[in-house]
Amino acid sequence: xxxxxxxxxxxxxxxxxxxxxxxxxxxxxxxxxxxxxxxxxxxxxxxxxxxxxxxxxxxxxxxxxxxxxxxxxxxxxxxxxxxxxxxxxxxxxxxxxxxxxxxxxxxxxxxxxxxxxxxxxxxxxxxxxxxxxxxxxxxxxxxxxxxxxxxxxxxxxxxxxxxxxxxxxxxxxxxxxxxxxxxxxxxxxxxxxxxxxxxxxxxxxxxxxxxxxxxxxxxxxxxxxxxxxxxxxxxxxxxxxxxxxxxxxxxxxxxxxxxxxxxxxxxxxxxxxxxxxxxxxxxxxxxxxxxxxxxxxxxxxxxxxxxxxxxxxxxxxxxxxxxxxxxxxxxxxxxxxxxxxxxxxxxxxxxxxxxxxxxxxxxxxxxxxxxxxxxxxxxxxxxxxxxxxxxxxxxxxxxxxxxxxxxxxxxxxxxxxxxxxxxxxxxxxxxxxxxxxxxxxxxxxxxxxxxxxxxxxxxxxxxxxxxxxxxxxxxxxxxxxxxxxxxxxxxxxxxxxxxxxxxxxxxxxxxxxxxxxxxxxxxxxxxxxxxxxxxxxxxxxxxxxxxxxxxxxxxxxxxxxxxxxxxxxxxxxxxxxxxxxxxxxxxxxxxxxxxxxxxxxxxxxxxxxxxxxxxxxxxxxxxxxxxxxx
Length: 630
Hints:
Layout: H1 10-47, H2 55-88, H3 92-117, H4 121-142, H5 157-179, E1 206-212, H6 217-225, H7 230-237, E2 239-245, H8 252-261, H9 265-268, E3 274-278, E4 284-285, H10 292-303, E5 307-311, H11 322-328, E6 333-336, E7 349-352, H12 375-390, H13 392-401, H14 410-439, E8 444-449, H15 451-465, H16 475-492, E9 498-503, E10 509-510, H17 513-521, E11 529-530, E12 537-543, E13 550-556, H18 560-564, E14 572-573, E15 594-595, H19 616-624
Parallel strand pairs: 1-8, 1-9, 2-13, 6-7, 6-8, 14-15
Antiparallel strand pairs: 2-12, 3-4, 3-5, 9-12, 10-11
Helix pairs in contact: 1-2, 1-3, 1-4, 1-5, 2-5, 3-4, 4-5, 12-13, 12-14, 14-15, 15-16
C-alpha cells in the first residue's frame, strides 16, 4: 500500500507535526541567535580593537558570543514558538517575522546605547554593514518555497549562512584592527614642545580638588538653606557653583578618569569597573554593562573560573591625567584615593591609590603608595583606623554619628555593616590627607570621598520615603554633615592663598521601578538609590582668583581639567573634549593658551603591578553598591 499521511493515526501525525515545528523553529532560533551574537561580537570587537590583537582571539570571542546569545536568549524563544505554533497553528512566516523584528529591535537598542556612549561615525558604518548583511540573509531565509522554514535543517542554507557570518565578522574585526577605525588620531605637531624648565609655581598658593561621589544638589541646597552645611555654604557664597553635566553609563572609574584627563572614554580607554580574561582568548576583554543578561552570566561564569576578572587599573588608562601634566612641569601634587590609581604612578609628590583605603581583614595592603619611604607611617594610621572600625566603640561611633537608635533587625545588619565600612574608609582618607598636609608643601591636592554614594544607594528609600522606620531616616543627611566637617578641617590646614574645586561625578535619584520589581522577583539585595539616568552632579569653586556669586551653566565633567590648567598658565590640549570655563576667574586669568596635545610630550612611570584578579574585598565593594551580582 502506498504511504500517505492519511494512513497514519492521530498520534503519529501529531508526532510528525511536532518534529517539523521543532526543526523549523530551531532553525529560525539558531539563525536569530547567530545574527545577534554576530552583531554583538562586531560591537565588542570594535570596542576592544586596541586590546585584542590576535586573529584567534577575535574568532574565539565571536564564537563565545554567538553561542551565548543562541543558547541563553533564543532557546526560550524556540520553546515559546513551539508552544504558540502547536496551540494556535499560525503561519510559520508570522513567527519568522516576529522573531526577526524582536532580534533587530533588541540589537538596535543595545547598539544605540553603546554608540551613544562611544561616539564615532565609523561605528555607525560598521553597524550599517552588519544590518545590511543580516537583512540579506533574512530575505534568503524567508523566501524558501511554501513561505516557511521546513527542511531548513537538512539544507545547506543554515550552514552557509553561519559560515558567511563568521567570515564577515573576522573580516570586519581585521579591518577595524588594521585601520584603527573609531579611535581619534592624536593631533600632535612634531615640532611642538612644552617649556619644562619654566617655573609654573605660584608662591604661597595651593589648589585643592575635592571629589564627592554622587553629591546631589537636591539634598545639598536644602541642607545649605537649613544651615546644616556651613563650610559648603561659605564656599558657595564666596565663589561660583552650578550643575555638573555627566555622561552615561555612570560608572565611577569612567567618570572620574574623564574628569582627571578631560578626555572621553573612547580616548582614555577606561570604560567599566572590571577587565575580563576569558579562557581561549588570552587577551584582556572589555565588556560593557549595558546588557544585563550578559553581565549576570559573566559574573556567574567567574565563580567557576571560566572567566577571570580584575579591576581596571592605571596601566589600562591611555591618556595623561592632570597629575601627570602638573607633575612633569615641576608642581608638587598629592593624589589621594582617586579612581584608577592602582598601581601607583611615580609623580612629583604623593599618591595613595584607591584600593589602599579598603580596610582589609589581613595585615597590610595589596596597594603600594608613593613615595615608598612614608609607607610605614601611613600604615600606622591605617592600622589604627582598622582597629577602631572593628571595635565595639567603632559600632557606637557609627550609631551616634548617624543617629541610629533603637532595635536593629537582622535585615538591617547588612546595611549597617556597609555604612560602617564606607564611613571608616572616608575617615582613613581624612587622616592620611591630614598627615601629608602637615608634612608636605603641595601645589595641588586631589582627594576623593566615596561614602555619600554608598549611603545613597542603600538608604535613599529611608531618606526619601521614610521606609524602614525612623532608624535610618537621617543617615544620608548626617553623612553630608560629616563630609562638610571634613572639608572644613582640611581647608583649615591649607594656606590662606588657596582655591578649591568641589565636584561630584553625577547626582542621585530613586531606583527605577522596573529594576525594583526585578530585584524583588529575583530576591536580590535591594538598592533603593540610583544614578543610571545620569542626573546632574555638583560643581563648586571658591577662593583665590575666583569670582563671587557667578552661577555656572552647562559645565560638564570634561571641562574640569581644561579649567584647571590655566591657573598655572598652562595650555589646554586641543584633543581634550571639554572647554576652559574662565568666566569663573577674576582678572588673574583672562586668556587661554592651547597645545595640540600633551600626549607624546611626557610619559607615565607606573609602579609595580599587584595581582588584583578576583580580589574578594574589591568585588565585595562592587556587590555592596549593586554594580555586580556575584
